[in-house]
Amino acid sequence: MNKNNVLVKRDDNTQPFPALIEWEELKETEVLPYSKIIEFMERQGYNLKNIEQKILEQAEKTIFEMDLGHYVIYLSEIINFFTILNRIDNIKNLYKKKLKKQLKESIYPTISKKTNKKEQIDKIRNDIFDILVKHRYLIASQGIEASGSESLQTSYYVGEQYQIAFDNYFENKERLKVELNIEVIEKESEKEKTPTLDVVFQDQPRNYIIQENNLNKALAREFSDFNLDHFTIDNYIKHSKYEEAFKMEHYLIKRFLFNVYRHFYNVDQLRTPNDLRIFAGYLATVKDFPFSEPELINYLEKGYDQVLELDNLDLKEKTKEIYKYITGFMIKIRTYIREEDFE
Question: Model-level pTM?
C-alpha cells in the first residue's frame, strides 16, 4: 500500500477498499484532554472509566499468577486437583507418588492439547508439584510409625496458603467473569428469548480432538471443566453469593452434555436441531450408563424449575436445591468414567 493509505471495511459492504488519510490536516487537529474524551465517549454510550477500572482489575496479578508463573495456564486443573484433595478425609496420608499421579490426571486434558510426549508431560507435572510445595500449597509432614519413631516416607497435606490464594483469585478474577455471564443472560431475558444449545455454544470451537466415538474419553475431557464450575458454585454459596451461583448453574449440565456430543462426534456444532435428542437416546443404550433417555432429555430440554419444585423457594434455597441436583448428576458421571480415561 502507498503512504498514508488505509484499508476500510464498511458495515454494509463485505468488500474492503483503500482510502487516503489527509495526514497534514490530521496532525494539526487538537488532541482532546483525557477528561474531554471521557465526556465525549459517555455521550456515545460508552463508560470508559468503568471499562478502564475493569482492565486495571484484570491486569492486577493474583497470588496464583505470581506463584505459578507461566504454569498459570493450568490453573483450572490445579484448582480441580485441590478440590479432589480437600474431599479426601485422611488428607495427611497422601504421599508424593499418589499426589503426582492425581496431579497428572488433573492436568492431562489440557497438556494433551500441546504434547503427547510422556517425558514432557511428566516434566510439567513435576515442575508444578515443586511449585506447590515451594509456596506451601502442599506441606510435607513426617509421619509417625506405630512404634513412635518417625516414618521414612514423607506425607503431605493442603496448606492454608492454597485457600488464601484461592480466595484472592475468587474475589479478583471470578467476579469479573460472572459479571459478564450475568450481563449476557440478562440481555437474553430482556429479549424474552430461549436460546437453543446450538445457538449458545456452537461459536466456541474445541481446542483438542479425540478419537471419534470414544465416549469415555469425551466424558473425561469435559469432566475437569464441569468439576471446576461445580466447585466455583459451591464457593459462591459458601460466600452467600447466591445470584452469582444461580447464574453459573444456568445451562451447566446442558453445556456439559453438548460438549461431550461435540467431542464424541468430532464436530464443532450440531448437524441437525434434533441431534442432541438422538445422542441422548444413544447414551441410554450404552452399558452401565447411569441415566435413562427420559432423564437425559430432562437435562437437555427442561429448566430446573420444571424438573424440581422450586416455585415457592427464595433465591438462596433455590440455588442450593439446584446445586444438589447438579452434584447428583456429577457424581454419577464421575463414577461411570474409568480411571484410565483421565490419563
Answer: 0.46
The conformation of residue 121, written as its DSSP 8-state character, comes to H
Closest CA relative to residue 337, chosen from 141, 59, 126, 105: 105
Q: What is the pLDDT of residues 73-115, one digit of tens each?
A: 888 889 888 888 877 645 556 888 889 988 998 888 788 777 7
pLDDT digits (tens, 9 = 90+) for 155-200: 888 889 998 998 888 777 654 444 434 343 344 444 434 434 433 3
Residue 142 is inside which H or E element, if any?
strand 138-144
Reported as type and span, the H/E element at residue 72 is none
Residue type, 245: A
In Å, how far are 11, 102, 106, 150, 273 from 97, measured between CA atoms?
A: 58, 9, 14, 19, 47
Written as nine digits, the cell of 245 is 451461583
Distance CA 138, CA 99 (A): 10
Whether 229 and 248 have beta carbons less than 8 Å apart is answered as: yes
Identify each DSSP E strand in 46-119 by its residue range: 94-95
CB-CB contact of 132 with 138 (8 Å): yes
Domains of the chain, residue spans: 5-47, 63-160, 200-342
